[in-house]
Structures are given as C-alpha cells and as structure tokens.
C-alpha cells in the first residue's frame, strides 16, 4: 500500500519538499517590505511580463531560503506550482480544461507582482508611458499650448527705464594702469 502511494507521487517532489513549497507559496509576499524593495530593484523600470514572472519566482526562492535558512530548489518549486495549478484548474473547470491550465502558470506570478507593488503595476499595465503621470501631464500641457501651473509668466518685451546704474567704479585689469601713474611714468622716462 505504501509503495502504491509513493508511485503516485510526482518523483520531483517529496512530502518535505511539498510542505516547504506550500510554506513558500503561502508566505505573505505582499506585506514583506524588505522583499518588495528588493523585488522592485531586481525588476527595474519596464520588465516584460514573462521576465517579471520568472524573476519574481527566482527572487521568492532566494529570499525564502535566505530568511529561513533552508534550501529551495527552483526547478522543483516551479514543477510543484505547475502541478498545483493544473490540479486546481482541473478541480474548478473539470478534467476537459486541464491542458489549457498549463498555459496559465506564467501569468499567475505576474498578477501577484502587479498587486504587490504600485510602481510595477503601473509599468506592467502601461508600458507605452514610462514617465510619471505628472510628467505626462506637463508634456500634454506644453503640446497643447496651455499654461503650466506654478510657472511664472515672463513677458517677451524688455521693460525700459527700470534698470539701475552701477555705483562702483570698474575694476582695472592687471595690465591696465591708473591714469595718474601712467602720466608720471611717461614724464620720468622722458627726462
């Protein structure tokens, strides 16, 4: 009987691995600020959805193994997730849609990434606008010719009569001589 159970289990996972993968999967990734900060640094400004999903899974495995001092096999965890998603989809939709569920696992981490961080959600939803909304708004105001709030309007004409005259005497350059010194120097050379 025990041999029948062991033969029905996936050869890439064991009971201990399954428990570890369940703990990894149930960890509150969205509320862990340290993980979210590291993930945002890893993902960068505009990752592709596939790249974001792959990097997120790698980062989860790495962070979990460092935090809890355990070894997490990425390939084993990835296979376990596919198996769990296939089994879950088969339970929800029936056995006929199980092959279609195999294409959903790469998208599943993307939704968790999008919900976990506002900055990555913005870039994942709108890849065409990498600028912040305030910058995009300013660009729109400039292109439509509307005034930008907070910018002082400078007239294009010069106002005459409002300038001031300098009160200090102009500083002499080193090679220029004072007129009184120049007159004394010429009279002494003539004598």
UniProtKB/TrEMBL annotation:
Domain of life where this protein originates: Eukaryota
This protein's name: Uncharacterized protein
Domain Peroxisomal membrane protein PEX14-like KPWE: 130-177
The organism of origin for this protein: Coniosporium apollinis (strain CBS 100218) (Rock-inhabiting black yeast)
Compositional bias of kind Polar residues: 94-105
Residue ranges annotated for the PEX14-like helix-turn-helix domain, each copy included: 20-84
Region (Disordered): 94-124, 148-191
Pfam families reported in the protein's UniProt record: HTH_76, KPWE_dom
């Amino acid at each position: 009987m025990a041999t029948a159970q062991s033969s029905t289990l996936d050869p890439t996972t064991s009971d201990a691995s399954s428990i570890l993968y369940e703990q990894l999967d149930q960890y509150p990734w969205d509320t862990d600020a340290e993980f979210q900060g590291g993930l945002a640094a890893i993902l960068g400004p505009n990752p592709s959805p596939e790249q974001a999903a792959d990097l997120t899974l790698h980062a989860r495995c790495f962070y979990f193994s460092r935090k809890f001092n355990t070894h997490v096999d990425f390939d084993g965890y990835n296979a376990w997730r596919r198996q769990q998603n296939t089994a879950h989809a088969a339970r929800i939709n029936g056995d006929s849609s199980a092959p279609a569920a195999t294409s959903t696992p790469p998208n599943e981490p993307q939704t968790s990434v999008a919900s976990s961080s506002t900055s990555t959600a913005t870039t994942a939803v709108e890849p065409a606008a990498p600028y912040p909304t305030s910058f995009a708004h300013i660009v729109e105001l400039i292109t439509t010719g509307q005034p930008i709030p907070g910018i002082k309007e400078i007239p294009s004409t010069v106002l005459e009569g409002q300038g001031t005259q300098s009160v200090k005497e102009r500083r002499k350059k080193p090679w220029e001589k004072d007129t009184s010194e120049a007159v004394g120097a010429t009279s002494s050379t003539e004598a």
